Amino acid sequence: MNELSTYKSSSYRTILWLLFLCFASVANAKSNDPLPSWNKGASKSAIVQFVKSATKKRGADFVPTAERIATFDNDGTLWSEQPIAQLMFALDRVKAEAPNHPEWKDTEPFKSVLANDMKGIMATGEQGLMELIMATHTGMSVEEFNQIAKYWLAMSKHPKYNRPYTELVYQPMLELLSYLRANGFKTYVVSGGGIEFMRVWMEKAYGIPPEQVIGSSVKTKFEWVDGKPVLMRLPELDFNDDKGGKPVAIQKFIGRRPIAAFGNSDGDLQMLQWTSATNRPHFALIVHHTDAEREVAYDRDSVIGHLDKALDEAPQKGWTVVDMKKDWKKVFPFEK
Amino acid sequence: MNELSTYKSSSYRTILWLLFLCFASVANAKSNDPLPSWNKGASKSAIVQFVKSATKKRGADFVPTAERIATFDNDGTLWSEQPIAQLMFALDRVKAEAPNHPEWKDTEPFKSVLANDMKGIMATGEQGLMELIMATHTGMSVEEFNQIAKYWLAMSKHPKYNRPYTELVYQPMLELLSYLRANGFKTYVVSGGGIEFMRVWMEKAYGIPPEQVIGSSVKTKFEWVDGKPVLMRLPELDFNDDKGGKPVAIQKFIGRRPIAAFGNSDGDLQMLQWTSATNRPHFALIVHHTDAEREVAYDRDSVIGHLDKALDEAPQKGWTVVDMKKDWKKVFPFEK
Fold first, then answer.
1. B196 vs A contacts (CB less than 8 Å)
2. What's the pTM?
3. β-strand partners of A224
4. Contact status of A274 with chain B (Cβ, < 8 Å)
5. Nearest CA-CA distance, residue B248 and chain A, Å
6. pLDDT of res. B336
7. Does A1 score more than 50 pLDDT?
8. Measured between CB atoms, does A231 come within 8 Å of chain B?
9. How many domains are contained in chain B?
């Protein structure tokens, strides 16, 4: 081997080594990113910054593990809310039960449901929707209801994506849930959705166990049926877990103020306010639906997921507003 | 060294070794007993047997960790209920607030409270007691109430033992709570007591965090006071967590059926029935107050902690009935 070849061989080796180190460090950085579906930007930075400061021992903003409570709205925050899955469930149940209720053909809101007339259903207002919920969600035991909901979720598909509703969860939010839990946070759902309807699928979809799911509920009653105790679901509203109801439910179920809250509509405003009204470290975030292509774009003019006051309050309060289109690399897990 | 001395020295050494081993093994057995304040007997064996079988992987009765939910009544099950601390709190609050309510001097049940006439108070019945609770537990924010309750608990003493009420917890039950948690159980309180009153002291006394305390509640409302959001406690019953209310609350808060339940009165009967009405492994236990000397002896004829139907049902259902006098080596932690 002459001098030149020795030199060449050695410099080749160096280059190869440098390339390898470079590649390894990029690969490592990539795999170390707990939020790979979040684009770089203010939203992602704000999340990471908050988590780092809350978990930094002896730091000024350190929060003990037991107090790291994070509450998430569900519809429009963790999964798609257009259409609202639980309303679709109620409509399907009306159709399935219609043979046992001949009177429904001539009575609203059932008449409109059977005629697939969504405008007609909406025209019956809040009272009509409540009647639909009571007719389809009560009169059976909790266990029976859970079976019905489970079956429907397994058999039904989202009209636009033609996939089970439980696949319409937001990939960046799944990563956020995992990231928070990996940092000692206890993640809760605090949603206007029905508490039992949600418990059926959330453990699998989000890794959130039933005891960390808070929602709206009907009254139930302990009764004996055929020599066995059951919890019967009564056609009476127990609790509406929306707006001012969210802080009320958080206190009732958790008994601590969250240090982080996540929502997407004015229904979450009071939860965000409650979380922020403290001198302790806290974090509040709004998912703003800006992506008409990958999902749906809506805010101030929408009936579903109406976002107006909370959007105005966000900059004054320092809340993070996620721009779905800009901030999310991926919306759903099934996207390539 | 002659032969004899060698022999002696060696046998001495052997004896010393044997003594040491013997002592070490006794000490070890003692420190390995997770329930040192429980005397040997059927109750202790039943508890240990259940926990061993529920946690034995690949055993027939194995229960996954997430499903190991254990629910405990509080008054008379985890701490002394004669007198009921929360009632004492209400009476003290009436006296403290009396100057602001001159009308109380002539109105029942307040009149009897101010006259220290316990018979008179009891004669006002459930409605009178509810009035006392509403007058003393509502009209302030949740945070204000918690401060009031904390202060009272720090300043008040049990009339018989002359110690803070929070020292009147049962040592064997503290050990049971720890033993269950060490075996992957999630321990909950499900009590007729006020949920916020209990949360103030249970984390320290039992190691049970606020989100695992379930109790009776008043309605609360999200309001703005002086530019800050508060949860105001309203003079209206939200939920009575007693009897059939216990399974209802368990389903609402936890969303799973417990596999172990612990009570001491007929107020716990439905919780024990609900826990037992399954083919899965389960365990139910009643603390029977049989010890007039160290605590109080009461059951079928007592108004407080009335235990009658549940005692009759226990043998049929295979529930463990703890005989406090016989089964507990120690009742309170402060006993020698």
1. 255
2. 0.91
3. A229
4. yes
5. 6
6. 85
7. no
8. yes
9. 2
Q: What is the pLDDT of residues A221-260, one digit of tens each?
A: 999 999 999 999 999 999 999 999 999 999 999 999 999 9
C-alpha radius of gyration, chain B, whole number: 24
Rounded to two decimals, the ipTM of the complex is 0.91
Residues B245 and B99 in one domain: no
Q: Are B214 and B299 found together in one domain?
A: yes
Q: Is B273 on the interface with A (CB under 8 A)?
A: yes
Can you read off the two tokens belonging to residue A224? 């004996």
Yes or no, beta carbons of B244 and A222 under 8 Å apart? yes
Tens-place pLDDT, residues A134-182: 999 999 999 999 999 999 999 999 999 999 999 999 999 999 999 999 9
Q: What is the pLDDT of residues A17-61, one digit of tens each?
A: 666 665 655 555 556 899 999 999 999 999 999 999 999 999 999
pLDDT in tens, A54-82: 999 999 999 999 999 999 999 999 999 99
Q: Do A196 and B277 touch (CB under 8 A)?
A: no
Same domain, B121 and B177: no
CB spacing of A248 vs B195 below 8 angstroms? no
Task: Please answer yes or no on whether B221 and A248 come within 8 Å at the CB atom.
Answer: yes
Contact check, Cβ <8 Å, A199/B255: yes
Domain annotation covers residue A67: yes
Q: Is B277 on the interface with A (CB under 8 A)?
A: yes
Closest CA to B199 of B256, B164, B163, B150: B150
Please report the pLDDT score of residue A25 as a whole number: 56
Kindly list the distances between the CA atom of residue B39 and the CA atoms of A289, B43, B51, in Å, as whole numbers in the listed order. Answer: 63, 9, 17
In B, which residues are within 8 Å of A66 by CB distance?
209
B257 lies in the same domain as B112: no
A206 with A282, same domain: the answer is yes
Q: What range defines the domain where residue B263 resides?
A: 36-82+169-327
Q: Are residues A49 and A92 in the same domain?
A: no
Residue B254 contacts A, CB cutoff 8 Å: yes
CB proximity B244 to A under 8 Å: yes
Compute the nearest-CA separation of A333 from chain B (Å).
Answer: 26
Residues A179, A204 share a domain: yes
Which helix (H) or strand (E) covers residue B127, if one does?
Answer: helix B125-137
